[in-house]
Write a structure and sequence with these properties.
By secondary structure, the protein is of the alpha/beta class. It has one domain: Metallo-dependent phosphatases (Purple Acid Phosphatase, chain A, domain 2, 4-Layer Sandwich). The protein is about 35% helix and about 25% strand. It is built from seven helices and 14 strands. The chain has an eight-stranded mixed sheet, covered by helices on one side. Strand 1, helix 1 and strand 2 form a beta-alpha-beta unit. The N and C termini lie far apart (about 45 Å).
Length: about 270
């Protein structure tokens, strides 16, 4: 019998429902494999940019099923769900903040961790000059990123045919491009500095599709990654330990070891 693993908090971001690249079936399997007291959906869950451009023709039954799973979590397990708006689901700006029972739609959130630390939760796009001040460039970059994900899908179908596991080619390319590495570093340090200004001990974000768990001085920086490339999430235990969880493309019901928990914390000066 498969036993669901329990977490105090789970953070997901950048699922991009409404696009063909969303790993919605994988994230749905992940949610079915766990219980949590609190689920934070940290932005870009629904990709409003693509829906506005293409209509709902790319909206799949699996995307609707994802929200049914969320409703079951609230109803059957009393899970509190906090939905933090991102730049791709900025249509939520017109209604946030708003509460529906134990569902809360907000622009930002402060989490009191089990270890007594305070974490500022934000999608992170407000700290990205490209998405806030140069929106036309952000949309242009989105086109290039979409192409990269399309090629990534072709590459992984070839790997699957050869019996090899999923590999994020797009992540590999980004980690080899000097400007991308510099952008990620600047993004992380900016958010760490912002946490200090808000008198928080840590910051939890998404947006850049780069999962991380590290310290910048005394500030705990956490990024939940995404569900179009890395298929990753953040989890907080009842003792207050934070981990990055990666999903391997294996049926969780058959092999629960498909979840690889990575507790490594890196310290950055």
């Amino acid at each position: 019998m498969f036993i669901r693993k329990h977490f105090r908090t789970v953070v997901l971001s950048d699922i991009h429902l409404g696009t063909t690249h969303s790993k919605v079936e994988e994230v749905s399997r992940f949610l079915r494999s766990i219980n949590c007291d609190r689920l934070i959906l940290n932005g870009d869950i629904i990709d409003g940019w693509h829906i506005r451009k293409n209509g709902t023709r790319r909206w799949q039954p699996a995307h609707t099923q994802f929200f049914k799973i969320l409703m079951k979590m609230m109803e059957n397990y009393g899970t509190e769900i906090i939905y933090v708006r991102g730049n791709h689901d900025d249509f939520l700006d017109s209604i946030a903040p708003i509460d529906f029972a134990n569902l809360h739609i907000v622009k930002e959130y402060v989490l009191d961790g089990a270890d007594g630390k305070r974490y500022f939760v934000t999608h992170g796009d407000i700290f990205d000059r490209v998405t806030t001040q140069m929106k036309w460039l952000a949309h242009l970059g989105d086109l290039g990123y979409t192409f990269l994900l399309w090629f990534n899908g072709i590459y992984n179908r070839y790997r699957a045919h050869r019996g090899k596991p999923y590999y994020s080619l797009s992540q590999h390319i980004k980690q080899r491009v000097k400007s991308a590495v510099s952008y990620i570093s600047d993004f992380e340090t900016t958010l760490a500095e912002f946490a200090v200004s808000r008198r928080c001990d840590g910051i939890i974000c998404g947006h850049i599709h780069h999962p991380d768990n590290r310290y910048y001085g005394q500030i705990h920086y956490l990024n939940s990654g995404d569900w179009v490339e890395t298929m990753s999430a953040l989890t907080e235990s009842t003792e207050g330990d934070w981990n990055i969880v990666y999903y391997a493309e294996v049926e969780l019901e058959e092999t629960p070891s498909a979840l690889n928990i990575v507790p490594t914390i890196v310290s950055a000066s």
